[in-house]
Design goal:
Mean pLDDT: 78
CATH topology of the largest domain: Dehydroquinate synthase-like, alpha domain
Number of strands: 19
Number of helices: 18
Strand content: 15-25%
CATH architecture of the largest domain: Up-down Bundle
Helix content: 25-40%
Distance between the termini: 51 Å
Low-confidence stretches: 1-11, 458-537, 540-604
Radius of gyration: 27 Å
Strand order of the largest sheet: 5-12-9-8-6-7-19
CATH class of the largest domain: Mainly Alpha
């Protein structure tokens, strides 16, 4: 039956009137056509199916013309699912676990169309679990492609996003029924999330975190992003995955430091809103570190501390994120530890990981809360001792008073002119403050430095100027793994000749020389010779920085050393033979685009790619 014209008679354009008029409309769909009706107006009888939208259009008529205001709520539904042995071929979570509608699930499982999946993995995760992932999809008769990439803070750029998108386009996925799968740490999940949100404006994707930090933080929210102009996560968006699948068995393969790194984000939620979680960390922190968050039957009366800890951390995080998924409200308790840490983390790379930088921020803010009288001396001491028990740093020499001032000024720019400073008001309770004076901050800083800077942490500052420069240089560029290296000098900077050495490391992986994979590196001074000869294998190790300031570049030149920003050498050329790998301090000169703003990161190439 045709739609009655009477139903939509009110939709005719209003005549301009001298008196301003406001009219609100609802949107209805009959058959395939959307139309508007006045809000509250009854629909006439119609046999066709009518759909009423939650969207609204407001029309304002004045002498100057007509304006429209659109209210269109955006709806997202995503799942966060605990699972175990996700790579067991009999576990179908990775295939169908993202589907929420029972009818859609039945249609998908009964379809005779062959399944296809595009998977992006961190290259270290690929070495550890790649064979299992391939076996999983082959056993389930899935056509797949795996793209293994070096996902670190240094490669976290739009170049890597574009790399992923090129491969996705080649594989040609269905934008609605074939979600992209990201398997790796937080950097990998962030990069893939942004790539998926850009491909055909929004392609579904699935997160599978493999580190503790990504398990409790990056995997449960909607944000994704990449670094830009040496600023952390400056580009990004709010597009949640269709699902996050959490399997704690991945965590057993990461080194102890990465466990501690993840505990920093868990402690954040404990301090902000859950005293029970704080007590768990205080009493079972060492046990969680020792057992790498695995569940064991002989837990000596502890219950399942790992399961309790991760569940509470995720539940409290979701409570804060779900009502404010797009951060329309800038007052966020989850920003605790994130006022100073972005500036600090990018400034001192590679010495701090994300959770460590967050904890240093939290330690300082704990002293701010104490100086303001929000917590007692006993509570302050409990917090700092808990941090130390979790093997988290509570101070860093790079967190100077000047850096704190600069970070808080940056905070004001992006928070509506208010600091919006979350501070603990007890153990497991917190509020957001906008009235902390600079005098209070400086007093807290001096007390924090006095209490938390240990003799061990002060030791590097006692080095002579030349020793410090020499050690810092090699900590930035040491251990480049490739088959052959050739460095061409350029007149802008004096370059010291590189000499071959016996050992090289890439990220946290121990590398041995062999056919087609020779080991070459720059001879390290004392600062690098203290590195262990066998390093853990899994986790996003902080990358080598290429963001030294011009101020200390001049100092480098005076001493005859290459500045940390090695990528700025226009004549630096690295020739690769056989199956070679670039280390984190050197990149091919031809791949870089020199701009007035300094070097832009080069497009990272996949370490391996497999199609079945």
């Amino acid at each position: 039956m045709p739609v009655s014209e009477k139903i939509f008679a009110t939709t005719a354009p209003a005549a301009l009137s001298e008196r301003p008029q406001q009219t609100d409309f609802q949107l209805v769909r009959v058959k395939s056509t959307w139309s508007r009706i006045k809000k509250g107006e009854a629909l006439s009888n119609c046999e066709d199916k009518i759909t009423l939208s939650e969207a609204k259009i407001g029309e304002y008529v004045s002498e100057g013309g007509i304006s429209w205001t659109i209210e269109a709520p955006i709806y997202f539904c995503y799942k966060v699912v605990e699972t175990f042995n996700i790579l067991d071929p009999s576990n179908t979570t990775l295939l169908w676990g993202h589907i929420t509608d029972p009818q859609q699930l039945e249609l998908a499982t009964s379809s005779k169309r062959k399944l296809r999946r595009f998977i992006v993995m961190d290259e270290v995760v690929d070495e550890l679990y790649g064979s299992k992932v391939r076996h999983y999809f082959e056993e389930n008769n899935v056509q797949y492609k795996i793209l293994a990439l070096p996902t670190t803070e240094e490669t976290k750029s739009m170049d890597l996003v574009l790399n992923i998108l090129e491969e996705v386009q080649t594989f040609s996925i269905d934008r609605r029924t074939e979600p992209i799968i990201a398997i790796g740490g937080g950097v990998c999940l962030d990069i893939v999330g942004l790539a998926a949100s850009l491909y055909r404006r929004r392609t579904p994707y699935i997160r599978v975190p493999t580190t503790l930090l990504s398990y409790v933080d990056a995997s449960v929210g909607a944000k994704n992003g990449v670094n830009f102009l040496q600023c952390k996560n400056k580009l990004g968006g709010y597009t949640p995955p269709v699902a996050s699948f959490l399997d704690r068995s991945f965590i057993q393969s990461i080194p102890r430091r990465h466990i501690s790194n993840g505990l920093g984000e868990i402690l954040k939620m404990a301090l902000m809103k859950h005293k029970g979680l704080f007590d768990l960390l205080k009493s079972h922190g060492k046990y969680l570190l020792d057992t790498k968050f695995q569940s064991y039957s002989d837990s000596a009366g502890r219950g399942d501390a790992a399961l309790q800890t991760t569940r509470i951390a995720i539940e409290t995080m979701l409570e804060e994120l779900a009502p404010n998924l797009w951060e329309d409200d800038l007052d966020r308790l989850v920003d605790f530890g994130h006022l100073i840490s972005p500036e600090l983390e990018m400034r001192v790379l590679p010495s701090l990981m994300h959770g460590e930088a967050v904890n240093i921020d939290m330690a300082f803010m704990t002293y701010v809360a104490y100086v303001r009288g929000l917590i007692t001396p006993e509570e302050k001491e409990q917090i700092i001792q808990c941090m130390r028990g979790l093997e988290l740093p509570v101070w860093h020499g790079g967190c100077s008073w000047r850096l704190i001032q600069r970070a808080l000024l940056e905070r004001l720019k992006h928070s509506g002119g208010q600091p919006r400073m979350p501070l603990p008001t007890g153990l497991g309770v917190a509020e957001i403050f906008n009235d902390t004076s600079e005098e209070t901050l400086e007093k807290a800083y001096k007390l924090w430095v006095s209490d938390c800077r240990t003799a061990l942490e002060e030791e590097p500052h006692a080095k002579s100027s030349k020793e410090e420069l020499h050690g810092t240089l090699h900590s930035h560029i040491c251990h480049v793994v490739l088959a052959k290296v050739r460095v061409i000098r350029y007149s802008t900077y004096p370059v010291r000749k590189a000499t071959a050495g016996p050992v090289s490391h890439k990220r946290h992986r121990h590398q041995t020389a062999g056919p087609g994979n020779a080991s070459v590196h720059l001879t390290p001074p004392r600062a690098c010779q203290t590195l262990p000869q066998s390093l853990p294998v899994h986790g996003n190790h902080p990358p080598v920085p290429h963001h030294a300031t011009q101020e200390n570049e001049d100092t480098w030149n005076q001493h005859g050393f290459v500045p940390p920003r090695m990528s700025r050498l226009p004549g630096l050329n690295v020739s690769l033979q056989k199956r070679s790998k670039l280390g984190e301090g050197l990149r091919p000169a031809e791949a870089r685009d020199e701009t007035a703003n300094g070097p832009q990161p080069s497009r990272a190439s996949p370490r391996s790619s497999t199609t079945r």
